[in-house]
Amino acid sequence: MNIPRILIAATHSGAGKTTLATALMAAFTRAGYVVQPFKVGPDYIDPGYHLAATGRESRNLDTIFLGLEGVREVFARAALGADLCIIEGVMGLYDGRGSTERGSSAEVAKALEAPVLLLLDARSMSRSAAALALGYRMFDSGVRIAGILLNRVGSPRHYNILKEVIEEQAGVPVLGWIGHRAEISLPHRHLGLLPAMEKDALAEHLERLVAVLEEGVDLSRLLEIARAAPPLPRIGEKIFPAVPRSPRVRLGVIKDAAFNFYYQDGLELLAALGAEVVFLSALSSPALPPDLDGLYIGGGFPEMFLEKLAANRSFMESLRRAFNQGMPVYAECGGLMYICRSIYGFDGREYPMAGLLPGVCRMHTRRVALGYCKARVLNDNILAPAGTELVGHEFHYSSLEDMPADFPRAYALRREGEEVEVLDGYVRGNLLASYLHLHFASCPEAARRFVECCARFKKKRVVEC
User: Fold this and answer.
1) Mean pLDDT of the region 26-47
2) Fold for domain 249-464?
3) CB under 8 Å to 93, separation ≥6 — which residues?
4) Could you tell me if residue 145 is left (phi over 0), alpha (psi between -120 and 50 degrees) or otherwise beta?
5) Are strands 275-280 and 5-10 parallel, antiparallel or unpaired?
6) What residue stretches are annotated with the CobB/CobQ-like glutamine amidotransferase domain (predicted)?
7) For position 14, what pLDDT does the model report?
8) CA torsion angle for 426, 427, 428, 432 (degrees, to 10)?
9) What angle do CA 103, 109, 113 make, to 5 degrees?
10) Three-class SS of residue 72?
11) Burial of 46 (0-12, 13-18, 19+ CB in 10 A)
C-alpha cells in the first residue's frame, strides 16, 4: 500500500505541534489535496481542529489502546482515498509510558514506517540546536527524522544561523521556520486546548495559520518526503468486521459543544456492528426521539454549559422516561456528570441535571485524575461481564459525591504506578456510568455487547408497542 504520510513530532510538549500540524493540514487541503488527519494518543480535542482544517474526521493512533496491529488497521482503513496522511504526535517524540516508548510518537512512526518532521522550539538557541537535533536523530535508529522545522525563531538571520549549523552538524534538512506569532496560538482551558467547535471565527484563524506557514516553510519538500515513505504491507481486519452489518438498532449519541469526546473509529465500529448512530444535543434537542434503542453520552465540558444544560428540562425528562423503560444508557466522564442529580460548578452554584444517579458532581480547581489504567469489571453490565479486564483513560477535574454506599460499582481501576485498586463508576440495570474513557476499537466485544443489549431493548419496546 503506497500511502504518502508524515508524522509531526516535537522535542517536548508545548513546542507548537498542534498549531503546526493543523496549519499543514489546512495548507495542503487548500492546495487541493485530500488530507487524512491522525493524532497519536488518546486526545479528543486536537482531532476537532484537524476536522476543521481538512473536512475529514481525525483518527487516534494509540498503541496502548489498539496495539501495533490495531494502529496499522485503523491507519490503513482511514487512509483510503487520501492523497496525504498527516499524523500529529504526542508530547515529545520519544516520550511514552513511564520510561518506555510504549504509546509514544516514535512507536507509531516505526509501526507505520512514517518519516518524521521534528518541530524544534528555537527560542534563545543557536549552535545548541544542532546538538539537540543530532541527539534526536541518533537516539533510535528505527525512527527516521526526515526534516526539521524551527518554531519561535527570532529573525531571518537567526533562522539562517540555525539552518546552517543543524544541517552541517546534525545532518538533517531544515525545511523552514515560524517566528514569534502570538496571534496564531490556539486557546487553552483546564483540560487543554479549547475545542474547535467552541472557537469563534475558526476559519479565519486557520487562514492566518496557513499564511504564516506558507511564508517560511517548504511545503513542496515536505510533500516529497511524505510521498517517499515506503509501501506498507496489506493490513488484516481484526477490529472491524469484513462485512458491516445492516443497521438493526438506533443508537443516540449526544454530540454538541458540551459533549464531544468520542473516538471516530469507536463510533464507526458500533455502526459496523449494526448501530444506526443518531446525533443529538443535550443543549438544544427538545427530547430524545421515541424510537431510540440506546444512548451513548461521551465526555466533554458540561461544566462550561451548566446553565444551558439545566435549562433544557424537556430533554432530561425524556431521558429519565427512556431510562425508566429500560433503554441502555452508557455515560462516560462528562456523561457521568450529566446524569447525576446535580453539578456544583467552578462558581460553587448547584445546577440540576438528569438525575439517573442520586449523587452530585463537584468541580475542583485541581485535576483529580489523569492517565491510562486497567479496569476490572466488578458487575455484569451493558458492555462486559464481571471479571473482564478493559483498558481505559481518565482525565477529569470533578468528583462524584453522596452516592449510596451499597450502589453497585462498575470497575476496580489499577492506575499506573499505584498498587491499590480504586473503585469507579456505577451500574444500575441497563445503565453504566463511569469516569473511564474507553475506545471501542480496543474492546470490540464491548461494542458488540452494547449493540446486542440495544437490540434486546428494541425487541421488548416493539412488542410492548
Assistant:
1) 96
2) Rossmann fold (3.40.50)
3) 9, 10, 11, 104, 105, 106, 116, 118, 136, 143
4) beta
5) unpaired
6) 251-442
7) 85
8) 90
9) 140
10) helix
11) buried
Residues of the chain with CATH 3.40.50.300: 5-227
The yes-or-no verdict on residue 198 having pLDDT over 80 is: no
Question: For the residues 152-178, what does the mean pLDDT come to?
Answer: 95
pLDDT digits (tens, 9 = 90+) for 211-256: 888 889 999 999 999 999 999 988 888 999 989 999 999 999 999 9
Strand partners, 401: 360
- Rounded CA-CA distance 294/249 in Å is 8
Q: How far apart are CA 159 and CA 174, in angstroms?
A: 10
Residue 47 · residue 56 · CB < 8 Å: no
pLDDT at residue number 456: 97
The residue count for the chain: 465
Query: Which CATH superfamily includes the segment(s) 5-227?
Result: P-loop containing nucleotide triphosphate hydrolases (3.40.50.300)
Cα–Cα distance, 270 to 265 (Å, whole number): 9
Q: Which residue has the cell 487512509?
A: 79
Average pLDDT over residues 25-50: 95
d(CA 275, CA 292): 11
Q: Which of 333, 373, 443, 454 is an active site residue? A: 333
Query: What is this structure's pTM?
Result: 0.93
Q: Could you tell me where in the chain the CATH 3.40.50.880 domains are found?
A: 249-464
Beta 350-352 vs 389-396: how paired, if at all? unpaired
Per residue in 382-398, pLDDT (tens digit) is 999 999 999 999 999 99
3-state secondary structure of 51: helix
Q: Do the beta carbons of residue 383 and residue 436 sit within 8 Å?
A: no
Rg of the chain, C-alpha, whole Å: 23
